[in-house]
Amino acid sequence: MKKTILLCIVLCMAAITLNSVPYTTIGQLRAPDAYVLPHKSAEFTFINYLRRDQSSFTDNKNYQYYPMGMINIGLFDRLGLAAWGGDKLGFVDLKLKVLEETSSIPQVAIGVDNLFSPIREDATELIQGQDYWSNPDKEAYEKNSLYVCATKATVLRNLTGLKLLETFITVGIGTNKFKGQVEIAKRFEGIFGSITVKPHKDISITFENDGFNLNAGATYSYKNFGFKASYVGIEEQENNRIGVAISYLFDKFADKRRRETLQINTGRGNLDTELVNSELNGKEINSNTDLLEELKKLKEQREQAQKVLDDLRNQLKEIEESEN
Question: Against a cut of 0.85, is the pTM above it?
Answer without folding.
Answer: no
